[in-house]
């Protein structure tokens, strides 16, 4: 099949060769594996909804109030389902994050288990419970509608083979009793088949968007405080280091460069203008003065020169060319980026590529830079051995601190055996 370079199904759907890739089959696998889970989870809402509809129908027909026993039963069942949802949603959410990889390769941070009591007081747990109700209440209805459309299309396609064998065949808007009459309907069915393939992909993509939105982890108060402290640590360390370098430059390098420039200037005065040494001395004098200016700019900017000269995409490609592992770079950056986001993204790519070369034992890596309109997304993946763990070193922790200081977030997916994916999201407010 023709490959389509996309990290998730919603992106692949926009590709003109979508139907010739593996994405439609991945979408179908996602839908088929959703069906049994949604069927089981629909039992809970049915226990409450079915008697409720029956009671409402009885009231409308007989104009009588709902019996007290039925109202009590519905209230108890509703409370029981709601109370049970935060607990059942934990394993379901973990399984759904894993299954989301069928249609979305981007990692989704989960909600850590903090005990039974925490399931009733954290926003993330109730978001997972909301996904449980959505999966058991909305998804079955949408799937039934889509299944009916598929069965109708199949009926149209096979109608020439069944017409005339045992009476008339009803085809949605018409009735046929011979293969000749059914052929036009079969042609319509064949033309609708690609539409249904796209519709299946769109349905799977929509479900993945909802799952990603509801199942992403949320930071509690302690985590937010830790993020704030990490930002403060990084900013303080950065400023302290910048002041130290400026002080060393001012007290050490600058006097020596000034003395060197002065000595070269005095030497120029002692050398006649027509002397062979006059030209090199003049060049050396200008270079010494330029070096002082350059050092001040480097220290004050703390920004790689390649970023200024080439932009983020060019600077990252330069890093990729220098990496010992083959690195493929994809950049979708139609407009200039804020300097803070560019600098943070550059150092993230540089550090991650360094880690890949040192630890991953990878044979290939990929860097993707995407302007989402609201921010910059950086994704670095490799086919190495995986198992990256921030707890085993300070490199990833330092990267997370740097990204957090830019008001962004870093996500890591690195199962043992690989592959590894590092995703950094930097908002423009950075």
Write the layout of secondary structure elements.
Layout: H1 9-12, H2 23-41, H3 43-62, H4 68-99, H5 123-162, E1 169-171, E2 174-176, H6 179-215, H7 221-270, H8 278-301, H9 305-322, E3 327-332, H10 339-360, E4 365-371, E5 375-382, H11 395-405, E6 409-413, E7 420-427
Parallel strand pairs: 3-4
Antiparallel strand pairs: 1-2, 4-5, 5-7, 6-7
Helix pairs in contact: 2-5, 2-6, 3-4, 4-5, 5-6, 7-8, 7-11, 9-10, 10-11
Terminal CA distance reads 40 Å
Number of strand segments = 7
**Low-pLDDT residue spans:** none
Q: Globular, elongated, flat, extended or rod-shaped: what is the shape?
A: elongated
Q: What composes the largest sheet?
A: 5 strands, mixed
C-alpha Rg (nearest Å):
32 Å
On the 0 to 100 scale, the average pLDDT is 78
Largest sheet strand order: 3-4-5-7-6
Enzyme class: transferase
Protein name: histidine kinase
InterPro entries: HATPase_C_sf, HATPase_dom, Put_sensor_dom, Sensor_HK_TwoCompSys, Sig_transdc_His_kin_sub3_dim/P
Domain Putative sensor: 69-215
């Amino acid at each position: 099949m023709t490959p389509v370079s996309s990290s998730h199904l919603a992106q692949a759907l926009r590709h003109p060769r979508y139907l010739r890739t593996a994405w439609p089959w991945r979408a179908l696998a996602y839908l088929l594996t959703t069906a049994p889970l949604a069927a089981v989870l629909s039992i809970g809402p049915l226990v409450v909804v079915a008697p409720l509809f029956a009671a409402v129908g009885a009231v409308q027909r007989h104009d009588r109030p709902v019996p007290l026993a039925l109202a009590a039963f519905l209230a108890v069942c509703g409370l029981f389902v709601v109370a049970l949802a935060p607990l059942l949603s934990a394993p379901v959410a973990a399984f759904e994050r894993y299954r989301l990889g069928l249609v979305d390769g981007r990692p989704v941070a989960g909600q850590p288990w903090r005990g039974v009591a925490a399931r009733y007081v954290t926003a993330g747990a109730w978001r997972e419970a909301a996904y449980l109700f959505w999966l058991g209440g909305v998804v079955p209805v949408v799937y039934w509608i889509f299944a009916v459309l598929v069965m109708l299309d199949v009926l149209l396609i096979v109608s020439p083979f069944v017409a005339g064998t045992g009476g008339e065949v009803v085809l949605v808007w018409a009735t046929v009793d011979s293969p000749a009459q059914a052929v036009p309907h079969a042609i319509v069915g064949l033309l609708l088949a690609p539409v249904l393939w796209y519709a299946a992909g769109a349905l799977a993509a929509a479900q993945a968007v909802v799952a990603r939105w509801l199942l992403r982890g949320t930071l509690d108060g302690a985590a937010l405080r830790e993020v704030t402290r990490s930002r403060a640590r990084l900013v303080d360390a950065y400023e302290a280091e910048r002041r130290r370098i400026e002080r060393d430059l001012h007290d050490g390098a600058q006097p020596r460069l000034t003395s060197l420039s002065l000595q070269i200037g005095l030497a120029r005065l002692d050398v006649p203008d027509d002397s062979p040494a006059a030209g090199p001395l003049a060049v050396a004098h200008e270079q010494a003065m330029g070096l002082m200016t350059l050092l001040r700019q480097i220290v004050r900017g703390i920004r790689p020169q390649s970023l200024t000269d080439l932009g983020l995409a060019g600077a990252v490609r330069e890093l990729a060319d220098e990496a010992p592992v083959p690195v493929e770079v994809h950049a979708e950056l139609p407009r200039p980026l804020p300097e803070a986001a560019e600098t943070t993204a550059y150092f993230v790519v540089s550090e991650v590529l360094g880690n890949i070369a040192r630890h991953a034992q990878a044979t290939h890596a990929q860097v993707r830079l995407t302007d989402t309109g609201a921010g910059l997304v950086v994704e670095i993946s490799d086919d190495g051995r995986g198992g990256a763990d921030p707890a085993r070193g300070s490199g990833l922790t330092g990267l997370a601190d740097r990204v957090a200081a830019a008001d962004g977030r870093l996500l890591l997916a690195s199962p043992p055996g690989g592959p590894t994916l590092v995703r950094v999201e930097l908002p423009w407010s950075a």
